[in-house]
Design brief:
Blueprint (H helix, E strand, L loop, with lengths): L4 E5 L3 H12 L3 E6 L11 E3 L2 E3 L6 E2 L7 H9 L4 E3 L4 E5 L4 E4 L13 H8 L22 H9 L1 H16 L16 H4 L32 E4 L4 H7 L4 E4 L2 E5 L6 E4 L4 E3 L5 E4 L3 H4 L7 E11 L12 E4 L7 E4 L1 H4 L6 E9 L9 H9 L3 E7 L3 H14 L5 E3 L2 H4 L5 H12 L6
Parallel strand pairs: 1-2, 1-14, 2-10, 7-16, 14-20
Antiparallel strand pairs: 3-4, 5-9, 6-9, 7-8, 11-12, 12-13, 15-18, 15-19, 16-17, 17-18
Helix pairs in contact: 1-7, 1-13, 4-5
Length: 431
């Protein structure tokens, strides 16, 4: 008789999605999750009645409602969704003004260095200002600064990207890998010439926009659940057993490996069809070696101010060396009705930052989804080598698998993470 038992370590977006797709196929799923609610950094919390997540969690994925990934969200929300039309800006302190985000060609004439910028833009473009692919480094095989300086010139790169990416990842652009996926990706990484053509990849990606553009522009399915994300993640684990516990790590890896938890429970690999890890892969082994940058979200409630940002903007990005990378007015996304407004200030932090704040404040922030020392994997050559060493170490356990951003060490958003779980679930037959 086939073993129907599945164990999932971590109940964030990846773990909850994996539980959903496997339980849909009839498997008996157990999820081990450390927090009081599933959903990880995508769980919805409230401050003074205002809903928020760990930064803006807007779902956008190619295709319409019938796409299997999008359809998961439609089904689990009963199609009760707000359709989002994003407006984003960058504030450049040296210019003392805001510009559209991403960088727009039409905004160049408003910049002090416009003549220099125009000269630099023409270095690797034809007469129609289209990038000349053959003159560009190949994405995925070059550093971040190398590609983007070639694509938009040194002046625009320094103005909009150099300090922003450095403080966001704690890696200078001349060391940051371009194998990462960034938010403005779908028209390149996932678009196709026709239904039979493969995805184009990101060759020739142009970060400069020549028409009014924003993140997700042209993606029809760009939504936020009317009642927040908690109902989605709870529904995903509705047919699973969720155990609130903390994974300590793998023990006895060479003989009879098992997962040890903080409560003392031992989950033996031999008892399960498959064990899916969705937590940090170094934490799976009880170690802390992979580099991450974290985030601290500072909720700022402004009483008596209905709206704070100009032109109906959702977020302002700060491209200089300010502590904050992004400031978001949450009610623009959530449509929460209130005479006040909630601003979420996003500040990058490094592991160990929690020791710099009072314990009661950190405990509150952790419980209310405002603080995570490990939020985004740092995409460096050395980090990838460390990650693959962990993957090799786990090969001795044949039924150990990985799913999601933390276990697969990817810079993914919610849709990519859910898609990773969906694709892996396709490998399993219904029971």
């Amino acid at each position: 008789m086939q073993n129907r038992k599945m164990l999932i370590l971590g109940g964030g977006v990846a773990g909850s999605s994996m539980a959903y797709y496997l339980s849909e196929k009839g498997y008996d799923v157990t999820v081990v999750e450390k927090n009081s609610r599933v959903g990880g950094l995508a769980r919805t919390c409230h401050y003074s009645g205002h809903p928020y997540e760990f930064g803006p969690h807007i779902w956008f994925w190619p295709g319409g409602k019938d796409d299997p990934i999008n359809n998961t969200i439609v089904k689990l929300t009963n199609d009760e969704l707000f359709h989002i039309d994003r407006r984003l800006f960058t504030y450049v302190e040296s210019d003392r003004r805001k510009y559209r985000y991403p960088v727009h060609y039409q905004d160049v004439d408003q910049m002090p260095e416009r003549e220099q910028i125009h000269r630099e833009l023409r270095e690797h473009r034809d007469e129609q200002l289209k990038l000349i692919d053959e003159q560009l480094p190949e994405l995925g095989h070059c550093k971040f600064a190398e590609y983007f300086e070639a694509a938009i010139g040194a002046t625009l790169y320094q103005k909009f990207m150099a300090n922003y990416t450095w403080k966001m990842w704690n890696i200078p652009g001349d060391e940051l890998e371009t194998s990462m996926v960034w938010a403005d990706r779908f028209r390149h990484a996932y678009s196709k010439a026709d239904d039979k053509a493969p995805s184009r990849g990101v060759r020739g990606y142009d970060p400069l926009k020549f028409e009014d553009h924003t993140l997700g522009k042209g993606i029809a399915f760009q939504v936020y659940p009317k009642h927040g994300w908690n109902a989605v993640w709870s529904a995903m684990v509705g047919r699973s057993t969720v155990v609130r516990d903390h994974v300590v790590g793998i023990r006895d890896e060479h003989k009879q490996p098992y997962i040890l938890t903080a409560s003392g429970e031992k989950y033996r690999f031999t008892d399960y069809h498959t064990v899916f890890c969705s937590i940090d892969i170094d934490s799976l082994w009880g170690e802390d070696t992979l580099p991450y940058t974290g985030r601290m979200m500072i909720p700022l409630l402004i009483p008596g101010l209905t709206s704070a940002f100009p032109d109906g903007a959702e977020s302002l990005h700060y491209s200089s060396c300010e502590f904050q990378t992004r400031v978001t007015e949450m009610k623009v996304i959530t449509r929460h009705e209130s005479p006040d407004t909630l601003i979420l200030i996003e500040v990058p932090i490094l592991p160990g930052a929690g020791r710099c704040f009072p314990r009661n404040a950190i405990d509150y922030a952790l419980e209310n989804n405002l603080f995570a020392e490990k939020a985004y994997p740092q995409q460096s050559e050395q980090a990838f080598a460390t990650y693959h060493a962990y993957v090799d170490r786990g090969k001795k356990i044949p039924n150990l698998r990985y799913v999601g951003r933390h276990a697969e060490f990817k810079y993914w958003g919610m849709p990519e993470t859910v898609n990773s779980a969906y694709q892996k679930a396709l490998e399993f037959e219904a029971v």
